[in-house]
Amino acid sequence: IPQGLSTAGDCRCRQAIPVGVCGRLDINSNYGLRRSFLPQGERRYIPLQQPTAQRVMIDTVSAGRTTLFVIGSHTNVALFLMTNPHLKTNIEHIYSMGGGVRSKNPTGCCPPDAANPSCKPRQCGDRGNLFTAYTSNPYAEFNMFADPFAAYQVRHSGIPVTLVPLDVTNSIPVSKEFFDAFEQQQETFEAQYCFRSLELTRDTWFGDQFYTSYFMWDSFLSGVAISIMQHGDSYLGENEFAEMEYLNITAVTSNEPYGVNDGSNPFLYGRAIPKFHLQKAGVHSGYVQTGPQDPFCFVKGGGKGKCQTGRIHQGSNSEAVQVLVAQRARPNQDVHSPMNRQFFNSFLDVLNLHRQSGRFNLTTQFPYYREILYKPNFANQTRGRPVIFDMDMSAGDFLALIYLLKAPLEKIDLKGILVSGNGWAIAATIDVVYDILHMMGRDDIPVGLGHVNALGTPTLGCKYVKAVPHGSGGLLDSDTLFGLARSLPRSPRRHTAEKSAVQFGAPRHGDRRALRQASALEVWQSISESLRPRHGKITVLTSGPLTNLASILDVDKSGIEVIKVR
């Protein structure tokens, strides 16, 4: 919220979320599973017609009593409460997932009987779960860190809040026994989709720690909330899945020392009275963390970071409010079940119910659909100059791509496409490139995904990409081709993180390239090796950042002799 009204500019909090593999790329594509399994409905994003979150909330809450489930950043709800205070009385309850009150992160702990004395704990025992930023902020959880002040506004709205924090989700990891039971119970399309999503998550997880570090976060909130509601919204929060307790808490948005106006805090800087009537010396009046790599947050000697932006703090002062908090997941009442948590039974039962089941998947929606690759035969045709197109997937780049595909083969022979993930589209938009090639009958052209960060910038930074708006006129429109992308035929090719024969880390390190997305460097090497004996220069047309080309030349010094840039 403090970042202003524009969707362009600093990305103070969202820097903690990786933009590539194991981050937004895999999440936006659901590891490639979304396009291979889900049907394509008629509804889609259309510029100027897409209702905003605020419009949907106003219409829904205005119609009558409403309960909110908040399982991500609290920005939407906080903005709604701040701009529509007259509708607060229609919100009956808010169930919120996030934060850690008294939690101890089990991730990154050394085994108690570790034979390797060099094992060094990482996040072990931390309150939070910022695996990308725990060295600067070991207290925050991703949902709270994404917009700390929004979390504060929701907690202090005066509306009854039930919090499902890391305290309770850490007690319900996805166990091997649950995973095996899930694999055997897939009677509906949605159960199949959820299991395959979980399977891909496991196969791309960090090392072999999936069963000890992947938890039932958002789904567990849904189960707890529904159970409480079925028990008549009991004041004490009785439910079958979690033990509950009332605690006085607040969301911390800044760091000590409090009350020192150093220019970092937009709530205080240049103001005689703090914005939103915050206390001048409270937990919102200190230094504001600028990002995961903020030097202020690091401790000399490499100890735990000192920043607490996004922390859920338990206290008894005037800044704390009473919230119902889930503490521990209840054990399975069936002592003969291999699954150790009661929620696991309900989760599998609900997903496999045929009532309200999904209507179809991709194959039943399109019974005549075949995953056919269209590869033209140019054996007896004269080919023109070999060309590689390096694009960043903005709308103009897609027009250029179609133009190149329509150009006479004897003039231009398009050999490959390099995609930049740090321009005017997110990396997952590579699927649109595949669809256009499929539409034009050119499934023979390889596509390589390049860097998702500018050269010389940190993996979690936003030094240059912050200039690209997130919403209309920016990433939203580019990623969807202004809503037209869903009208394209669906290519059998897509970004994928399918597993290979390697037990863990296969999509990242496996040698079976057919089961993972090729890199820009791999595509370049394949094309250049096949052309060098017979051709001279290879023309590279660039219409985006030069990151891919610079990276290739840094690795392949001989490329300087054969590349002709236009």
Automatic annotation (TrEMBL):
Coiled coil: none annotated. The keyword Hydrolase applies. It comes from the Eukaryota. Keywords: Hydrolase. GO terms for molecular function: hydrolase activity, hydrolyzing N-glycosyl compounds. Residues 32-203, 387-561 form the Inosine/uridine-preferring nucleoside hydrolase domain. Pfam families: IU_nuc_hydro (PF01156). InterPro entries: Inosine/uridine_hydrolase_dom (IPR001910), Ribo_hydro-like (IPR036452). Belongs to the IUNH family. This is Inosine-uridine preferring nucleoside hydrolase. It comes from Musa troglodytarum (fe'i banana).
